Amino acid sequence: MKLNQRGLLIVISGPSGVGKGTVRKALFEFDEHDFVYSISMTTRPPREGEVDGVDYYFVSKDEFERRIEAGAFLEYAEFVGHYYGTPKDKIDAYLDEGKEVVLEIEVEGALQVREKMPDAVFLFIAPPSREALYNRLLTRGSEDPTTVVNRMDKAEREFLLAHKYDYIIVNDDVHNAADKIIAVVRAEHAKTERSIQSYRSMLEVDDSYGK
After folding, report:
1. CATH value of 1-38+100-211 in 3.40.50.300, 2.40.30.10, 3.40.50.720, 3.40.50.1820
2. pLDDT (tens digit per residue) in 161-179
3. CA-CA-CA-CA torsion sign (179, 181, 185, 190)
4. Which of 43, 146, 167, 207 is deepest in the core (most CB within 10 A)?
5. pTM over the 0.85 mark
């Protein structure tokens, strides 16, 4: 009998360019956990190689704002002129099925989720150094130098919010970071507050032992 039947909402967050997407993809290579990626919605244009409905749901600004009015997002934020948000659809259903739902979102959005779903697991993905983050943003080639500077300024502010997360995962090596997250997931499932009710139910089922 599993002590904790319900899945976990795993929030992977951190500054732009820290490698959240790469770590998330490495995480999904582990077969022993039933991970489901919660696809975010955005108004920014797709980058080269990105696929609608796989990497993001790409929508117009008008469509996104209509969804805001309808209360359709678990969280949303505006960054560098574009909206990003997490649709509410299916998350609770996935959790009830025992699946681990992974959200990969920016820091502002993660803090919104923390208010609405405090039992989620919040992971701050950190760069090994400021220089490493700057070089990663610069070599990514998807933004001009001014945007890179703006992203670094925002990252500096976000570093100060790491204490609001449950765990800090330094992305010095992608597979090492993913291994640490797997360890976190296993430990979270064994937490008393998540498993005590199931444990008591298990004892009630086994109360005839030795009779």
Report:
1. 3.40.50.300
2. 999 999 999 999 999 999 9
3. positive
4. 43
5. no
